[in-house]
Amino acid sequence: MSLTLQRDDLLPGRNLIGAWCDASDGRRFNVNDPATDAVFATVPDSGAADARAAVDAAHAAFATWRAVPAKQRALILKRWNDLILAHQEDLGRLISREQGKPLAEGRGEVAYAASYVEWFAEEATRANGEVIPAPVPGRRMFALKEPVGVVAAITPWNFPAAMIARKIAPALAAGCTVVCKPAEDTPLTSLALVKLAEEAGVPAGVLNIVTASRERTPEVVDVWLDDPRVRKITFTGSTPVGKHLARRAADTLKRLSLELGGNAPFIVFEDADLDAAVDGLMVAKFRNGGQTCVSPNRVFVQSRVHDAFVEKLAARIAALKVGPASDPVSQIGPMINARAVEKIERHVQDAVARGATKLVGGARLPALGPNYFAPTLLIGADGAMACACEETFGPLVAIARFETEADVIRAANDTPFGLAGYFYATDVRRIWRMAEALQTGLVGVNEGALAAEAAPFGGVKESGYGREGSVHGLDDYMHLKYVCQGQL
């Protein structure tokens, strides 16, 4: 897909550290098209000096930005929302080119990203404190909400627009300033969004972004972890990296929002509407080629309906159209890189070696390009297989049978992760039992698409802590100050 934009200046190709600039040592790294592995852009390969300069700019801007009235901050965010929507086509093309998802999904992600900006623009004016009834005469007691300070945002590659918006919008709404490092695979969308935020009126120094290669990312992030002026880290990514950030952040007691790995169960009971369950699984599993943190990773189907469900699902998976974003009929694009393809292939091979049966797909598609993998359906899965223990992050469905509700609850919760869970059933009593029994931060009941800007998004156990979106998402960027006035 050729990258022809209506606005070429949405590809600044530079860092924003108070002003647009190159890395201090002039280094750059390549951005590859996952459909072909061809290099099509370069961006700064930033290091410790650039990371420190970004904190300097954000810290200097904080005192002024926090004093800007909430209504004025809200107006700036609303202008940013309007600009994002006005450039939906350009941003969608950027996402599709650097991340690989079909263009329709790229456009959809832009709208989804904008919804968070709009939501937090509105929430900015609702950060209300409390008046506390005083226990003695002559005293007034208040709880005030204040911005935490400089926020370091580290974002993933799978939703390069949505994750930037979901972290930066509440930070700015709360009165925080931001330093941000986007994923090395997808920096262009993030730079374009920050360019639009600057146009919307975000003052210099309030929002800073530095790009870095995989090799230099630790150098950048370590500066932010060590700097006491950075008061919060917000990160979406793997659990091992999240644990590392939590350990390092403890030295300066930074606030943390961690949205980490998942191992989502998808459960189909014998009383489910099977057609609806198939629809829900297709939406939940194959969006972005299965490269989502809430993608179902373990599918459990009750024995009495197992064969009927598998037959319906196999036909739908076999009909999926795989191809580049440039093809309007494509429903699944390439995986992000060779490492992703190798992991999916390893999971399929391990499952088959352990007794699973391959019904659909199960192999690379080299005729399309180096990073394509066929949508795959396996049956006969069990909890010992790698695809049940590790997050596949690809278009692989592995189905296990179950007999009783108690059995599937034990199996679904038998994981250190707890981000999302799904189940399909029509018995109202079962619905409430299951909603309470699943040890996850998100539960989809007869629904495969969970996320919304008004809902709290986040996990439990080793899937992290903190919430993004909703009123709770704004609170994660603020702290409470107790004020007591006496002698009244």
TrEMBL record:
Range of residues in the leader sequence: none
Top EC class of this enzyme: oxidoreductase
Keyword rRNA-binding appears in the UniProt entry: no
GO molecular function: glutarate-semialdehyde dehydrogenase (NADP+) activity; succinate-semialdehyde dehydrogenase (NADP+) activity
Superkingdom: Bacteria
Matches recorded under Pfam families: Aldedh
EC number: 1.2.1.16, 1.2.1.20, 1.2.1.79
Gene3D superfamilies given in the database record: Aldehyde Dehydrogenase, Chain A, domain 1, Aldehyde Dehydrogenase, Chain A, domain 2
Keyword DNA damage tagged: no
UniProt keywords, alphabetically: Oxidoreductase
Alphabetized SUPFAM superfamilies for the sequence: ALDH-like
Domain Aldehyde dehydrogenase: 20-483
Active site positions, chain numbering: 259
Family membership: Belongs to the aldehyde dehydrogenase family.
Matches recorded under PANTHER family: SUCCINATE-SEMIALDEHYDE DEHYDROGENASE, MITOCHONDRIAL (PTHR43353)
Protein name: Succinate-semialdehyde dehydrogenase/glutarate-semialdehyde dehydrogenase
UniProt lineage: Bacteria, Pseudomonadati, Pseudomonadota, Betaproteobacteria, Burkholderiales
